[in-house]
Batch of 2 targets.
Target 1
Amino acid sequence: MTTETKEHIAVTRFREFLRIKTVQPNPDYEGSCVFLEKYAKELGLDYSVVECVPGKPACILTWVGKNPSIPAIMLNCHSDVVPVSAANWTHDPFAADKLENGDIIARGAQDMKCVGIQYLEAIRVMKHQCKQPLRTLHVTFVPDEEVGGQEGMKLFVKMDEFKRLNIGFALDEGLASPGDTYKLFYGERAPWWLTLTARGKAGHGSQFLEPCATIRLIKTLNKFFAFRESEARRLKYGKKENGTAFQLGDVTTTNVTILKAGVQHNVVPEVASAGVDIRVAPTVDLQAFKKQLEDWCAEDGVEIEYVNTFWDNSTTATNDSNVWWTALKSVTDKRNIKLDLEIFPAATDSRYVREIGIPAFGISPMNQTPVLLHDHDEYLNEKVFLTGVDFYVDLLPALADVPN
Ligand SMILES: [Zn+2]
C-alpha cells in the first residue's frame, strides 16, 4: 500500500484545496466555489454564496444548530493566497507535494487554507459523533483578504445576507508558532495610510526660495521619525504592566513608503509629498493621535490626506467577562496548550468583524512550525495539521454550546 492510499481524508481535502489557484491578483474563486459546494454536500452542510462584488464570492457552509434563533458562530477563512516567485520554491507551489516526513508544501498551507479545512474536518468528526451543536456554525470563505479585504470582508459584514447570519462570535486566522504554544490574537493595530503634501515657491535652483516645499516636508517628516524612534525604543526596552516584554503589535510603527518631489536638478519643485504607513497600537487614543499628527503638519503648513485609514482599534476581552474566552480557555487548558496572547502586528479581516461589534479571536493551531506565511516553500506538516483538526473537534462544541 502506498502512502497516498493511506492518507487521512482531512489531509487529502487540504491538498485538493491547496491545488486550486486562488492566487492574487487573479484568484480562481470559481474553482474554489465548485470545490466548497461539493464539500458541503459531502458533509451534509447547507451551502450559499454571497457576492461581495461581482466575481468575488463569499461561500458559506452552514450546520444549523439545535437552536438556530440564538447568535451563531462564524468560522472564517480567506480563500485567496498571495503570489509566489516560483523560481525560489523547491516544489511547485500549487502541487501540494507531501514529503516523506509529512511536510505539505504549497502556497496557502499556513495562510490560511489549513484552517478552513480544519474547521470542516472537525465538523465531519462531530457529525460522525452525532454532536449537533446548540448554536449554528457558519464556515465562511471570503475573497480578497490578501489585498486588504476592500471587496471582501469589508463589504460582506455590511450586507443583509451577513446580518441574517446573526453572528455572535467569530474565529479567524492567527500565525504559526515555532515553539509549543499557540498564538491567540485578540486585537489588531489600525492601519493608517497617509499622504503628506507640502507646497512652496518654484523657481531656479540657484536661489533661496521661501517657502520651500521640500524643507517643509522634511521638517514635518522629522517629527514622524522622532516618534518612530521613541516607539522603536519602547519595543526594545519597554515592559508591559504585567512585566512581560512588548511585542510588535503593542507599539505603533511609522514608515515613509513613498517620496515624491521634483523633475530636474536645477528646478526647485513647488510640491513635495510623502506616503506614510502607520500601524496604530490598540492602546492609542485614535482621535488624540490624529490631532497630534495634524498639529505636526500644521506647524509647517503641510496638508494631510487620509488615504486608507481604519478608525477602530477595539480588542476582544481575554478574561472571564467574555464567555467565548472562557470556553476557548477551557479547551486549551484541557489540551495543555499554552496561549501567547498578542495583538496582530499586521491586518486581517478580523478588524472588520470587531469594528461592527462582534468579538473575534485570531488563531491558527500550528505549533512547532516556522512562520512561513507569504514566504517561499510555505509548508505545514500533516501531523500538525491533524492535531489542529482535533483541536477544533474540542473547540467548536465548546463555543457552539455556550448557553444563550
Ligand atoms: Zn491570511
Target 2
Amino acid sequence: MDRLVNFSTTVSWGITDPQRFQQLMDEAKSLVTGGYYLGDNLFTWCRNNSALEDPAFIRALQTNVQNSSDEAIAWRRYLLACSASHAIHLNGDFVECGVYLGTGIKTVIDYFGKDRFDKKFWGYDTFDYHPTKGHDFEEQRNGLFQKVKERFAEYSMVRLIQGLLPESFQQGCPERISFLHIDLNNAEGEIASLDHLWDRVVPGGLVILDDYEWAGIYREQKRAEDRWFQDRGYRVFPLPTGQGFLIKR
Ligand SMILES: C[S@@+](CC[C@H](N)C(=O)[O-])C[C@H]1O[C@@H](n2cnc3c(N)ncnc32)[C@H](O)[C@@H]1O
C-alpha cells in the first residue's frame, strides 16, 4: 500500500542553466514525500508511476533504449502502450506518422510480445533526412531507412514506408485504423496526415499527437490541430506529458 516508486533522469529540454537546474531539482526531490518522476520536462510527486510497476513495459522500454531521451520519455511511451492495449481489441491497423529509429513502434509491439501482436503496424517517415530544415535528428542520413528495416527484420507485421507525407500514403495505407500516433514535429505534415487518415480511424480508435501540448516552436501544431478538430466537433485532451489524446466517436 505504501510502495513508492521514484524515477529521475537529467533529460529535459528548454533549460538555460542545466547545472543549477539539476542542483535545485536534487533539493526539490529531497523535499517531497516520494513517488516522484523527473524528466521529459515533468516533475511530479505522490504519483504511482504505474509505468514503472508494469514489468512487461519496463522490459519493452529498456530493451529498446537507443539514446538518453528514450528513457526519459517513459511516461509518454507508457501512454502509447496503454492506448495500444485498448486499440488491439478494435478492428483496424496501427499507424505511426514519424518513425525515426522505430523505437516507439518497437516498444509498443514488444510490450505485448511480437508473437502475440496480431495487428499490422504501418510506419511512415522520410528516414534518411528530416524534411523540416534544422530539425534533423542524429543518424538522419543516407542509410537510416536500411538500418531501421533491419531492426524490424523479425517483425513481419511492420510495414515501413519511406517518403514524404502525405504523398507517401499512395505507396500503401490501411483502410481501417484503430491506433494513430502522429509525431512529425511540424503542423503542415500533421494536418495533411489527419486529412488523409481521419476518416479511416474506426469508432473507438485512438489518436495520440506527440507534440500537441508542447509550447514554443511546437505551439503552431496545437493551434492548427485545435482548428482542425474543432471543425469536426472534437476537443483534444491536453496531457501533462506534452501529448494530445483523442478518442474517435
Ligand atoms: C520526433 S521523430 C519521430 C520519433 C518516433 N515517433 C519515436 O517514437 O521514436 C519525427 C520524424 O518525423 C519525420 N517527418 C517529419 N515530417 C515528415 C513528413 N512530412 N513526411 C515524412 N516524415 C516526416 C522526420 O523525418 C522524423 O524522423
